[in-house]
Amino acid sequence: MIAPDDDLPEIAAVRPAWLMTLADLALLLVAFFVFIQANQQLDGGTLARGIRAGFGAPDTGAIVPPAPMPVTANAVGGFAQGSAELPGPVAALSDWAREALRDPRAMLAVTGMVDGSPQDVDPTTHSAALLAADRARSVASALITAGIAPDRIAITAAGRSGRRGVSVTTGFAGNRQDAAVPVAAPPAAPLAAKRT
Prior knowledge:
By secondary structure, the protein is of the alpha+beta class. Helix content is 31%, strand content 17%. It has four helices and four strands, in the order ααβαβαββ. Strand 2 (106-114), helix 4 (128-145) and strand 3 (153-160) form a beta-alpha-beta unit. Mean pLDDT is 79; it is low at 177-189.
């Protein structure tokens, strides 16, 4: 039997602690890849609903498309405080939008903004968010009147931006273009026989 006052040799650690943590992380990463590989037959919506259910999040049933990645931007400024009336013609903006939407994958995001002051609010409801949305709707309406398809426009309202205006951005929201079909090289011309 070992007495409590016996000196026992120190046992050296076999592996450093960080190595075990690294191994755990590597196994988790492998398990994640196996999970993704095993669920290739599921569509993204079904997989997302399953993950939401696993974490106890409510399933709204709505499919939220990703926001278009902004590529170019334009703006309409000069709105009067508390007003959503357009400050002037938007012909240049309409021409810009028409050019930007030549690609069928592109979308317009029209975002209304307020300056954050107590005077820059909707006169009836005293809501800054409502005024920002009204400004975006005014610009979107002018774009639609100029011939831009309504289904290519998304309207949003920003919080306080420090300026009274509307930002219009284009972004790619559609599917990738079809992969180019490889073109076979033209047949090689026969080599001319050497004359001797």
